[in-house]
UniProtKB/TrEMBL annotation:
It is a multi-pass membrane protein. Pfam families: Aa_trans (PF01490). It is found in: Membrane. GO terms for molecular function: L-amino acid transmembrane transporter activity. Its main location: membrane. Residues 69-463 form the Amino acid transporter transmembrane domain. Residues 1-46 are annotated as: Disordered. Signal peptide: none annotated. Belongs to the amino acid/polyamine transporter 2 family. This is Amino acid transporter transmembrane domain-containing protein. Residues 19-46 have a biased composition (Basic and acidic residues).
Length: 489
């Protein structure tokens, strides 16, 4: 039976894990860790997969979409998070200084882990939701659900637009500006359109390993080349100068912090992935823990190494810090990771639109079926989505600016604010029961205020930076839908 997202919450997830997961060797590991599912360490048992998502993805009369193991989920999360954000981190250390930059990365990682577990805890109480928008709808009603839905689409579309912009930078760098930048952005959007045609998250998870390998290989090429030769823009005889503490302006601090937040901001996809897992209650904390650990280590090593080798000539995206030939090779190698960033975020946004349309036409029983109606709706959603992303990426064709604007508008809320609001909903009436709850009350109150602060100050700093870039006569990209060369060389 299908459950509405407005259905009253249950105390715990239902028990009764069936035997189908016993064939998954990953579920025999770390069983004890699976019970520590949230910030308050609730004792939650596994859920039967057919009860997840109110039956929408459970495969009745169609394909079973609830088929991801913990390792599948980890690779899907890696595909979603390890991508564009990592390319801006070395430049963040150049702005903030080495020590403040490292501290910022570690703090954001810890808070991201905590807010991710808050989403998981809420999912345990409302196991029929299929995306973060439905969680907001449970707490705030239909009106706030609509606001959250619009916010989610803005967020994933901005991320996909930044992927298209990055692809245009790569294509321009490799081809020495072989054609108009608008055309290269179109090629990137077309490739992502093709990748988004499969309908299950399982396909996204299969892109995790190529994505991870391409990022590691590109980063190694840049780091090794900088160890052998000075950055491409450095003068002859240049010696690296590392700032332990930077002296940035308020706007520069804001934009640097927004880019670190962007690098860790994958929370908006967590619930969508939980909805297609076989055993999300036990397996998601495992996948999230490994994701944060891998991201933190990889981000720190890459950011520190590139900044310490390139110094004041560290660029954003970071691959441009390397000498010319290695940088071009790195850009060629990292293209799969950029495409999978578009795939992962595009899939979340497209599936949200798809489900809403199928509900509107009263065809939820065909969501997982291979019918003419379901495929027509899916293909139409994919096409419309990437047309909008193409327009957005040409309207804001500057890599750093599009990261900052997206972080300030929606990432702050979906990474911090929404999770904090969900904590207040879960703990209504018991927020001051002991010192631990009081501390969590203060922390979640801070996260909401921090999200509001990022909205105001972040939008100001990122938009003024974008306008300054457009006004700079030395910039080749002089405005929206510009054919100017955005290559780094």
């Amino acid at each position: 039976m299908h459950h509405s997202p407005d259905e009253p919450s249950k105390a715990t997830c239902p028990a009764g894990k069936n035997n189908e997961n016993k064939t998954d060797d990953s579920n025999n590991e770390s069983d004890k860790a699976g019970h520590e599912t949230g910030p308050d360490m609730m004792d939650i048992k596994s859920t039967h997969p057919e009860e997840v998502s109110g039956g929408i993805f459970s495969g009745e009369n169609g394909k079973d979409y609830c088929n991801m193991s913990r390792w599948d989920t980890l690779f899907a999360l890696i595909t979603n998070q390890l991508g564009l954000g990592i390319l801006s981190l070395p430049a963040c250390l150049k702005v903030l200084g080495l020590i403040p930059g490292i501290v910022t990365i570690l703090c954001v990682a810890l808070v991201t882990r905590y807010t991710g577990m808050e989403l998981h805890q809420f999912y345990c109480r409302h196991h029929y939701v299929i995306n973060v928008v439905e969680m907001v709808k449970i707490v705030g009603g239909r009106s706030w659900g609509i606001v959250a839905g619009i916010g989610l689409l803005i967020q994933v579309m901005m991320t996909c637009a930044s992927a298209a912009v990055t692809l245009s930078i790569a294509f321009n760098t490799l081809s020495n500006h072989g054609t108009c930048t608008v055309g290269f952005i179109g090629i990137g959007c077309l490739g992502c359109w093709v990748l988004c045609m499969p309908r299950t998250v399982k396909f996204v998870s299969r892109s995790g390993i190529p994505c991870f390998v391409s990022i590691i290989a590109a980063a190694l090429i840049v780091m090794i080349s900088l160890g052998v030769k000075e950055p491409s823009q450095a003068p002859e005889g240049w010696k690296v100068k590392i700032e332990l503490f930077g002296n940035p302006s308020f706007r520069e601090v804001f934009n640097a912090c927004l880019r670190v937040i962007y690098a860790f901001a994958g929370n908006h996809t967590f619930v969508s992935y939980m909805a297609e897992m076989r055993d999300p209650i036990r397996d998601f904390p495992f996948a999230l823990g490994w994701l944060v650990s891998i991201s933190t280590v990889l981000y720190s090593i890459l950011a520190i190494t590139i900044y310490c080798l390139a110094g004041e000539y560290t660029t954003s995206p970071a691959l441009g810090s390397a000498p010319l030939i290695p940088a071009k090779i790195a850009y060629g190698i990292i293209i799969p990771a950029i495409f999978t960033t578009g795939l992962a975020n595009g899939h979340v946004g497209i599936k949200y639109i798809y489900i809403e349309v199928m509900r509107w036409i009263k065809a939820t029983d065909e969501v997982t079926q291979n019918t003419k109606k379901s495929w027509t709706v899916w293909a139409t959603c994919v096409t419309a989505y990437w047309i909008i992303c193409f327009i957005l990426s040409n309207a804001i064709p500057i890599f750093d600016s599009i990261l900052s604007i997206s972080s300030a508008t929606t990432y702050a809320w979906f990474t911090y604010g929404v999770s904090a609001v969900l904590w207040f909903s879960l703990n209504k009436g018991s927020m001051f029961d002991g010192w631990k709850k009081i501390c969590l009350f203060c922390l979640n109150s801070f996260l909401i205020l921090f999200s509001l602060f990022l909205n105001g100050g972040g939008l100001w700093s990122s938009i003024t930076e974008l306008l300054d870039t457009f006004a700079d006569d030395s910039t080749t990209v002089q405005g929206s839908f510009s054919c100017g060369d955005n290559a780094l060389f």
